[in-house]
Amino acid sequence: MATIGHLAAGVAVARIAGPPHPAPVAGFALLAAFPDVDLLLPIAHRGPTHSAAFVVSVAVSVWLVARLRGSHRAARLMAVSAVAVSSHLLLDLVTAEAPMTLLWPFFSTGYGLNVTPLPMIQLGPGLLTGGGLVMTLGELSWSLVLVLIGLARRLS
Ligand SMILES: [Zn+2]
C-alpha cells in the first residue's frame, strides 16, 4: 500500500486515543506508516518490520517513553500504538500479494493473502495510466474517509 493509506489509517486509529489533537494524530499516523522504514534500511522489505515482534517492540517503546515522561496514559498509548502499527500489517495484507514474515524472528515463513481486495497504487510509469489513476483515486477516496473519521468531533 502507498504511504497515504497507512497515514490515513493512523489518523483514524488516533481517534481511539482521544479527541483529535495535532500531536497524537501526527504521531499515530507516523506509527501506522513506520513498518515501511525498512525501505530505507538494508533489510528485506516486509521482513522484520512487518512482524508481530515489531508491533510489540514499538508499543513497548512508546510505553517506556511515556512512562519516563511521567504520563499517566502510558498503557493506553501503548495499546493504541500497537493498533496503529498493526493497521499497517493488516492493510498490507489486503493490498499486496507480497508475503510478510509476520512471525519473525520465530519463523521466517512469509504470510499473505492471495487476494487483494484493495488494489495497490502502482508507483512509477504505471501511475500515469488510466488504471493507475483510477487506483490512486480509489485509495485517496477511502483514505479521506479514514481521515474524516479520525478528525471528526464526537456528536454526543
Ligand atoms: Zn508495508
Task: Describe the protein in words.
The protein has one domain. 56% of the residues lie in helices and 0% in strands. It is built from 5 helices and no strands. The longest helix is centred in the middle third of the chain and has 22 residues, at 74-95. The mean pLDDT is 87. The structure holds zinc ion (ZN). Zinc ion binds at residues 35-36, 46, 50, 88, 92.
Supply database-style keywords:
mainly alpha, 156 residues, binds zinc ion, single chain
Largest sheet: none
Measured as a percent range, the helix fraction is 55-70%
- Low-confidence region ranges: none
In total, the number of domains comes to 1
Rg of Cα set: 16 Å
Q: Tally the helices.
A: 5
Question: How many DSSP-defined strands?
Answer: 0
Distance between the termini: 34 Å
Element string (H = helix, E = strand): HHHHH
So what's the oligomer here? single chain
Looking at the structure, what is the overall shape?
globular
Summing up helix and strand content along with how strands pair, one would put the structural category as: mainly alpha
Q: Name the hetero compounds present.
A: zinc ion
